[in-house]
Amino acid sequence: MDDFLSQLPNIDHTDIRLFAAAVNASSNGVVITDNLLPDQPIIYCNQAFEKLTGYRRNEIIGHNCRFLQSDDRNQEQRKSIREAIDQGEHCQVEIRNYKKSGEMFWNELMISPVKDHAGTVTHFIGIQNDITRRKTAESELAKEKEHLEERVVERTQDLQESEAYLASIVETIRESLVVLDEHIKVLSVNEHFCKFFKLKDSEIIGRELFSLGDNGQWDIPELKDLLLNILPHNNPFEGFELENEFPKIGRKLLVLNARQVILKGKYQDRILLAIEDITERREIEQRKEDFISIASHEMKTPLTSIKGNIQLLERRAQRNNDAAYLEGFGKTAKSIARLERLIYDLLDVSKIQSGNIEFHYTTFNFDQLVAEAVSGVQVTTQTHHLVISGAAGTEVSADYGRLEQVLINLLSNAVKYSPNGDRVKIHVSKVSNYVKVAITDAGVGIHQRDQKRIFERFYRAEKITEKFPGVGIGLYVSSQIIKEHKGTLWVESEEGKGSVFNFTIPINLNK
Amino acid sequence: MSARILICDDEQEILDITQMILEDEGYQVTSVSDSRTVEKIVETERPDILLIDLWMPGIPGDQIVRNLRCNNAVKDLPVVVVSASRAGKETAFSAGADDFLAKPYEIEALIDMVSKHLNKGQKLIASAG
């Protein structure tokens, strides 16, 4: 440094020393190049420059600044530097430079020419500032911004898609949908609503729901009750039935689901109303029920005649002790009993499905019920002995007739599905506040996979179908009856070894 | 003299078999398929017991039972409703019938029921006498 300073003539060395010390202490890298020497060598660098570049002073002095370059020499900024130097002008660039270690750094480089009296550029002063951290942060920010923009675009597209998707769902469903504001004004309806009620958008949107139609046909007390009184306390409300005479479409039976939006935000307090037309379905159900009821009644008439005639003939044959006839009548009686059970079962299935099955609860001795059901089935079989063990020793409150039906069904099954057996065991017990019946046969048994499904309607185990006639409703009806009594009906079985059908019912249903 | 039974049902085959069963037991049986004539026949013939169906064209069985119960001359006549409708039991009793028999019936049950109600009547007469 002193060498360099001593070369400068006519300057107060004390001042210069201070300037030099200041420059040397600067945290910016400072270099001075001699513009008059070939290849503009560096004639001065401060400590900060050494620190910044990792080069020692002796590796710097005498070199052109290009040693800070690496392979990427085609940076635009170099052109600006070149031009500034050629023109002898000031210039500021941000350029990628490389430390001695090869590590890149962003250099904020300022170049200022120093001119002599004649205006000739004698030196350039270069001030360097490592702005790598700022550049990295900037570029990350830029990347982040770009990414954000992408995400906004993506998200917007997602929203548009899902909105279109939801709209298409709303338009596709075969149910009427209405959106109301908290004052029951219609905000929107789906296409099905317009089609079903034969109304135009313009006759609906913005109007109070109760004011739709021409003559107050929508001013329905039940609908008002639902939306104004019930919904605020029971949100959402489902399955509200409503029958009303509507303009253009006549009397309709509707089922309504209503929901008020509680989510905070711009949709809060809006009311969604879904309307399903069940007029036709209800009519079909009613017709089906009527049909089954009438059909089973009609079947009972010839059955009464057949049964009466057979039993009458049987009585006469008994008086005459006519063995051959008696055998025939016995067989016929069995078939009649089966036909009769089938008719009752069909009727029950129909009733269960329509929810019209009736139960009549009385209090009775449970053991007596079992004894009567067992003796009732015993008379229908000569091959099997039905043996009761145990006892409940209690009265129960239940539907006598229905439980008898379950017992007869389970006992008849036990006999039917054990063609090679000769015994059906019935065990009765009281377990806690339940009575339990277990009916054991040594029959064909039930495969594991069928054990759960045999209680389904019309289900028949695979191998059973060929060998044993039946339609598969007895166990369904039985399980529904036991379910109604808040009990359980289940089976334990092993194929080829036999089955145990169990059921429990609470002694007192109300407790 | 054997008891006299009146049966009313719109189905001829039901009438036929019921009549045969009861005649086999030694009763005198009259059967009628037109529900509109039953009340008149009850008044003129004065049977010891009436077996009547519920669902019939003309006048439904339960209406006939109600009418009979209001008619002082025959209001004590034992009436058994015989119906294929399971819900018929309640209808029958609320109309004032003495008993209910579900179709298809066991003939033993029919015979027992008829004799039960005839005996009741006999006892009543006996105790009154």
Structural commentary:
- Chain A is an alpha+beta fold and 511 residues long.
- Chain A has five domains: 2-130, Beta-Lactamase (2-Layer Sandwich), CATH 3.30.450.20; 137-167; 173-277, 2-Layer Sandwich (Beta-Lactamase); 283-353; 359-506, Heat Shock Protein 90.
- Chain A has 15 helices and 17 strands.
- Chain A has helices at 2-6, 13-25, 47-53, 57-60, 76-87, 132-172, 191-197, 221-230, 279-320, 323-354, 366-378, 400-416, 448-451, 464-467, 474-484; strands at residues 29-34, 42-45, 91-98, 104-115, 121-130, 176-180, 186-189, 237-246, 250-260, 271-277, 362-365, 385-390, 395-398, 423-431, 434-441, 488-494, 498-506.
- In chain A, the strands form four sheets. Chain A has a five-stranded antiparallel sheet, with helices on both faces. Chain A has a five-stranded antiparallel sheet with strand order 7-6-10-9-8, sandwiched between helices. Chain A has a five-stranded mixed sheet with strand order 12-14-15-17-16.
- In chain A, a hairpin with a 5-residue loop joins strand 6 (176-180) and strand 7.
- The longest helix of chain A has 42 residues, at 279-320.
- The mean pLDDT of chain A is 87.
- A five-stranded parallel sheet of chain B has the order 2-1-3-4-5, sandwiched between helices.
- The longest helix of chain B is centred in the last third of the chain and has 22 residues, at 107-128.
- Chain B has five helices and five strands, in the order βαβαβαβαβα.
- Chain B has a single domain (4-128), classed as 3-Layer(aba) Sandwich (Rossmann fold), CATH 3.40.50.2300.
- Chain B has helices at 12-24, 38-45, 61-70, 88-95, 107-128, and strands spanning 4-8, 28-32, 49-52, 79-83, 99-102.
- With 129 residues, chain B is of the alpha/beta class.
- The relative contact order of chain B is 0.16.
- Classes of the chains: A alpha+beta (511), B alpha/beta (129).
- Chain A binds chain B through residues 296-297, 300-309, 311-312, 315-316, 336, 340, 347, 358, and chain B through 11, 13-14, 16-18, 20-21, 24, 55, 84-87, 103-108.
